[in-house]
Structure to design on (259 residues):
């Protein structure tokens, strides 16, 4: 594009005529030049077809250090399917639900444009109630209830590999290790039903502890927009001699990058 005398920006299409003239001996259809765009993908394909028109071969040479390394700042929102479980000695219970995340991520992309190192900070929200039922007798049951409430916070570091499709689009896979910091305790109440009599009781709350978890993603990026399927390995937020509480999440992440 070029600026004209009236300060309007117009496309400079002279390169099409010059390329057509220079490649006139290659047998290329002239209609290919009328809509040719000045970008690496289209020009590379044109040159490859021209070089191969007489049976020749092509070999692409790329300076992997040509592109400087740089950082990419990304904000992301996720929706997850969440599965939580409580294990109490000889009995267990589970519950499932929906949870949400919002994350801020910084990725350092190396010069080869395929490998990146990233770090993210995010907040997750969830609400789930796990019931564990123990049979006391033929006429009595003891139901223990654990309520998990948000929010909690995650710090994740990891590596990402980009399969570059074009100059602005790529598939990617990544893996990371995270630290989870719950901000609320876990209720530990329950009730006994005996001969149709309902008797509630309250126990001391359980401490929700910080924990380490793994995360894996597979996604697609086009320009500034991206999406990924993300799996978080079990987060064990409480574990003592009697009770173990953990949850696992898998979901869809939507991404917007400032790069």
């Amino acid at each position: 594009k070029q600026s004209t005398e009236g300060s309007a920006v117009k496309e400079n299409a002279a390169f099409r005529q010059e390329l057509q003239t220079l490649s006139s001996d290659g047998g290329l259809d002239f209609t290919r030049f009328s809509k040719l765009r000045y970008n690496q993908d289209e020009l590379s394909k044109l040159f490859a077809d021209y070089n191969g028109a007489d049976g020749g071969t092509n070999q692409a040479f790329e300076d992997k250090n040509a592109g400087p390394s740089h950082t990419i700042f990304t904000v992301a929102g996720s929706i997850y399917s969440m599965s939580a479980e409580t294990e109490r000695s000889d009995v267990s219970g589970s519950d499932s639900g929906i949870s949400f995340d919002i994350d801020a991520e910084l990725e350092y992309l190396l010069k080869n444009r395929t490998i990146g190192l990233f770090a993210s900070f995010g907040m997750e929200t969830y609400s789930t109630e796990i019931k564990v039922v123990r049979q006391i007798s033929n006429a009595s049951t003891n139901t223990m209830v654990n309520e998990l409430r948000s929010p909690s916070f995650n710090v994740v570091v990891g590596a990402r590999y980009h399969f570059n499709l074009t100059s602005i689009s790529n598939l990617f896979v990544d893996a990371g290790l995270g630290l989870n910091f719950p901000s609320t305790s876990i209720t530990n109440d329950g009730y006994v039903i005996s001969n149709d009599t309902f008797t509630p009781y309250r126990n001391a709350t359980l401490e929700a502890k910080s924990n380490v978890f793994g995360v894996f993603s597979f996604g697609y990026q086009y320009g500034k927009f991206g999406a990924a399927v993300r799996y978080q390995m079990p987060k064990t937020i409480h574990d003592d001699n009697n009770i173990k509480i953990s949850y696992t999440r898998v979901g869809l992440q939507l991404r917007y990058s400032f790069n």
